[in-house]
Amino acid sequence: xxxxxxxxxxxxxxxxxxxxxxxxxxxxxxxxxxxxxxxxxxxxxxxxxxxxxxxxxxxxxxxxxxxxxxxxxxxxxxxxxxxxxxxxxxxxxxxxxxxxxxxxxxxxxxxxxxxxxxxxxxxxxxxxxxxxxxxxxxxxxxxxxxxxxxxxxxxxxxxxxxxxxxxxxxxxxxxxxxxxxxxxxxxxxxxxxxxxxxxxxxxxxxxxxxxxxxxxxxxxxxxxxxxxxxxxxxxxxxxxxxxxxxxxxxxxxxxxxxxxxxxxxxxxxxxxxxxxxxxxxxxxxxxxxxxxxxxxxxxxxxxxxxxxxxxxxxxxxxxxxxxxxxxxxxxxxxxxxxxxxxxxxxxxxxxxxxxxxxxxxxxxxxxxxxxxxxxxxxxxxxxxxxxxxxxxxxxxxxxxxxxxxxxxxxxxxxxxxxxxxxxxxxxxxxxxxxxxxxxxxxxxxxxxxxxxxxxxxxxxxxxxxxxxxxxxxxxxxxxxx
Length: 481
Fold this sequence. Notes:
The protein has helices at residues 42-60, 64-80, 82-93, 97-117, 156-167, 182-191, 208-217, 230-242, 265-277, 294-308, 329-344, 378-381, 397-405, 420-429, 468-471, and strands spanning 6-7, 9-11, 14-16, 20-26, 29-39, 124-127, 133-141, 144-148, 171-175, 201-203, 223-227, 246-250, 255-259, 287-293, 348-351, 368-373, 388-394, 409-410, 412-416, 434-437, 453-454, 457-458, 472-480. The chain is an alpha/beta fold. It has two domains: 6-251 and 456-480, Aldehyde Dehydrogenase, Chain A, domain 1 (3-Layer(aba) Sandwich), CATH 3.40.605; 255-437, Aldehyde Dehydrogenase, Chain A, domain 2 (3-Layer(aba) Sandwich).
């Protein structure tokens, strides 16, 4: 199956041919070309920024009902086409079809949520400490927003950045991950027919070195929201702060999953498998380190090995598959390098660690689990971003909590326990932005805040009502009688 169709950039309300085009390849079947997607040059990125800047004055003061209606229309179409778009997502990124359809559904719901938020934006009306004076505290749009999104959630993450940006009256220039531009293009095509004025939304596809660099450094861009690697995120922060632009970063994670002696073993195993290996482990919230107390450790290792034997790896569109391919050759090479590192460091390979042969040529890796590892090993400290996890034995809850927090990251953390005492203590003392009790570390709702601490995140939270903190600015007005 191959589609040689060309997909252009969307700038100022027009579809614009790219300077060049790049093939979007299915990681489940390297012979399957999803399409040829435009690569913008510097001039096209600047044109998109200028279009957004020109559209901002009218859009930022437009009626909230029309804004809400357009966002709701986008959400409704995404939901109506969830199977079609899920198929596209599975082809270009490698999630299994059920997971892909679930992600598309989430994207549609995000647009609908922020359609409502257009009508719920509130402020404060307060008396001044001075007689005869009142104070109004309101929120206004930030301006032109640059959005840079990753490859692992090619429709959900663009949705949770685009929707609030537009809902609060901003104009958008988005650069999706060069590896998976198809879903972002599909959103752009829907937006192009949903009543938004020309220039309010712009899509420029291409490499981070060209497209991303222009967006980040342009003085016409008032804020940048980025999800991706730690190194790139830190450089974006430097560049934005240097010109006093607002910046929001979601970066890495090395999320701990604590298993206590009193945990339900079957439940602990299932949530651990879900945390580490589903979506091929390619989630910033995935757990790649299991911290297991002494009394349940051996049973947990044995039960995990048994459960992993039943996991089916294969083509993302094939029925009955649990885990699809790794997204690219480069990512597969990185995953395999960590498998080698774990063995070299002396960890015991419990399961997986080898490539999987399927009917089609793709990047298939068996989910991999190490035991007898230590907190000092690289596999315990560094983000792998693939279906590779390890188990570390600890004496008790106190040691588990200390080890869980002993990381430069702080996105998501989980605990499996039947103890209300330990669950409550962990919720309070875990140094993570999100805590899961008897649930996988991966898997979050669209209507509540998303984000972490320490090296995982910088700036205000994403999603839910908390999104307004980034996409708006506060104004205080004093009114005398």
